[in-house]
Write a sequence for this structure.
């Protein structure tokens, strides 16, 4: 199926590399206009130069824990492309496998701010934009795709903070789907397994060895690593009008790892 998004504008967070970059690229191949954002400005600019050869793309560097950055993203969508149709909540950071008894609460606060509060804030702003009465042609509605994790279905593959945020994103996704289904807004979440992304940079400062040992027991039975380019195709489809029936879905994308 060749999904076309030629009339759509998409916002992808955490788009400087990994899955976010792959998703932005897939949206451009499908004909969409794309806004990319990431906290890593040098990496984002490199990605922007690469993606700008594929179609209309706009890059905004910033920390999504800042409310002003969210405002800037929505305003840019309106100014550059007159509207926003799709949000992909991809930005996130990994913890260091700390169970709740060992975690530094300031680190807990940072993980929740980036992985839960920030996507909640961007989702709120996107919903308000999707319902704006002065949108082109008066057409309201939109699609939200949140990147969760197998950690939102399992308890022992990461630390307490990361695991909590990924479980909570399931609740945010389904609550949004339930409240706005009759207003043309769809909200779904994918639950990937292991991927080649830069999220593992969190391990540079060390890990909780006990937490890591528990996680690796599950990693040993992981059937395979997820290809981000292939997963990006699913994201595009889930956000397209071809998937208009898909709402409130929790989509496991882990080669069956969660099923073991």
């Amino acid at each position: 199926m060749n999904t076309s998004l030629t009339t759509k504008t998409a916002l992808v967070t955490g788009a400087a590399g990994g899955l976010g970059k792959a998703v932005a690229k897939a949206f451009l191949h499908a004909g969409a206009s794309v806004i990319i954002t990431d906290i890593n400005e040098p990496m984002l600019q490199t990605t922007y130069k690469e993606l700008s050869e594929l179609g209309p793309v706009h890059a905004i560097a910033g920390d999504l824990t800042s409310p002003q950055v969210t405002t800037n993203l929505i305003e840019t969508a309106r100014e550059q492309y007159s509207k926003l149709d799709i949000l992909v909540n991809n930005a996130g950071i990994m913890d260091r496998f700390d169970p709740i008894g060992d975690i530094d609460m300031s680190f807990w606060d940072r993980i929740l701010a980036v992985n839960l509060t920030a996507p909640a804030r961007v989702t709120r702003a996107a919903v308000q934009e999707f319902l704006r009465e002065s949108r082109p042609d008066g057409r309201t509605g939109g699609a939200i795709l949140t990147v969760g994790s197998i950690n939102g279905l399992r308890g022992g593959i990461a630390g307490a903070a990361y695991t909590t945020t990924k479980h909570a994103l399931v609740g945010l996704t389904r609550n949004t789907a339930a409240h706005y289904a009759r207003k043309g807004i769809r909200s779904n979440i994918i639950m990937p397994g292991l991927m080649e992304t830069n999220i593992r940079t969190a391990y540079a400062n060390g890990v909780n060895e006990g937490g890591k040992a528990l996680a690796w027991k599950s990693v040993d039975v992981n059937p395979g690593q997820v290809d981000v380019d292939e997963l990006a195709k699913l994201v595009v489809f889930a956000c397209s009008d071809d998937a208009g029936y898909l709402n409130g879905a929790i989509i496991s994308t882990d080669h069956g790892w969660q099923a073991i």
